Amino acid sequence: MKNNIFGMRLKELRIEKGLSQQKLGEIFGFCNQTISFWENGSREPDLDTLLEIAHYFEVSLEELLEE
Question: What is the structure's pLDDT at 2?
Fold first, then answer.
């Protein structure tokens, strides 16, 4: 995921919903540190998790991963 587009988009969507990293982590079964790693680009979720995130935020996978 080049240039951490996913991380920036995830943070944007999370903030739009008024969620903390901790709350988002609870929703998906991850600790807030994992959410932070995703948002800053140091780690990436697997495909199944990406699909769950896209579904939760009601966006397509393309919207989540592309500018």
Answer: 53
Residue 55: pLDDT over 70: yes
Give dist(CA 60, CA 40) in Å, integer.
Answer: 21
Domain ranges in the chain? 2-65
Q: Which two tokens stand for residue 42?
A: 């140091």
Q: What distances in angstroms separate CA 54 from CA 28, 45, 50, 51, 60, one per listed residue?
A: 12, 12, 6, 5, 6
For the domain bounded by 2-65, which CATH number is listed? 1.10.260.40
pLDDT at 3: 72
For residue 6, give every residue at least 6 positions away whose Cβ sits within 8 Å of its Cβ, in sequence order, or none: 38, 44, 50, 64, 65
pTM beyond 0.85: yes
